[in-house]
Amino acid sequence: MSSTNRKVIITCAVTGAVHTPTMSEYLPITPDEIAEQSMEAVEAGAAILHLHARDPKDGRPSPEPALFNQFIPRIEEATDAVINITTGGSTRMTLEERLAYPLQAKPEMCSLNMGSMNFSIHPVARKISSWKYEWEQSYVEGMEDLIFRNTFADIKHILLELGEHGTRFELECYDVGHLYNLAYFVDEGLIKPPFFIQSIYGILGGVGPDPENLAMMRTVADRLFGRECYEFSILGAGRHQMQLLTMGAIMGGNVRVGLEDSIYLGKGTKAQSNAEQVRKIRRILEELSFEIATPAEAREILKLKGRDKVGF
């Protein structure tokens, strides 16, 4: 069990590339909406913002640097949050597209999926009879026949290209094999401690949301790296969000919320903003006597290069 006086880092994943506008009217789509919800999430207690871009005309995921540039500088000016840019993008983007903005921005952090995988929410399409935009149905149903690609060569390329600028990573591990992939890159000298391992549960194609799996991932990470070498974080997809985050925090982990991961606040209740989810997990953590890390404390814990060394 973890000490209750440590600082817990809250990450907020603001919009992502999985949910579509039909699924929630509260999903931020435009640069203004993404900026405003990001700033509210930081005010609520998020230290790290995990960010994607969307086409403001119809909400489809976009890798366009021009779109990122419409909200990232605003967030950076208004908050002291750690800005974490996706290198995952979506299953339909090439590696070059996914890296277009990160290489320009040279952020303190980027996300990095630690392997190729089936990644899908296609069963959700069966529950939707009317779509807001024409692209959504084929996008969701098409996930059944797509993989998210991150080969060893892809991961090495991302580590070398962004590592040259001092960027560190949110290492997204969707299954136990991803922890072993991470260990390979540690052995190669391409990833150095302290690692920030984002363990992910409940995505179709990854490890399931069973509490036993959380314990397994924590145990394997301890065995591979030693607890002193990494920070553990927990992402529970959909309805599993709050339960797994609470369990993970008690086990010594940090937490991630946000409308990328779940569009709900509780059973049958949609979250009306990212900040609502941040406030909820913050209340739970503080009721358990945990302290919430500030952005400055998160930078120190994760040994980030600092906001004065980014390209935006």
TrEMBL record:
The name this protein goes by in its record: 3-keto-5-aminohexanoate cleavage protein
Entry-linked Gene3D superfamilies: Aldolase class I
Statement: the UniProt record of this protein carries the keyword Metal-binding: yes
Record's keyword terms, sorted: Metal-binding, Transferase, Zinc
Cofactors (names): Zn(2+)
PANTHER family named in the record: 3-KETO-5-AMINOHEXANOATE CLEAVAGE ENZYME, 3-KETO-5-AMINOHEXANOATE CLEAVAGE ENZYME-RELATED
Pfam families tied to this protein: BKACE
Organism: Paraburkholderia bengalensis
Transmembrane regions: none
Keyword Chloroplast: no
InterPro entries given in the database record: Aldolase_TIM, BKACE
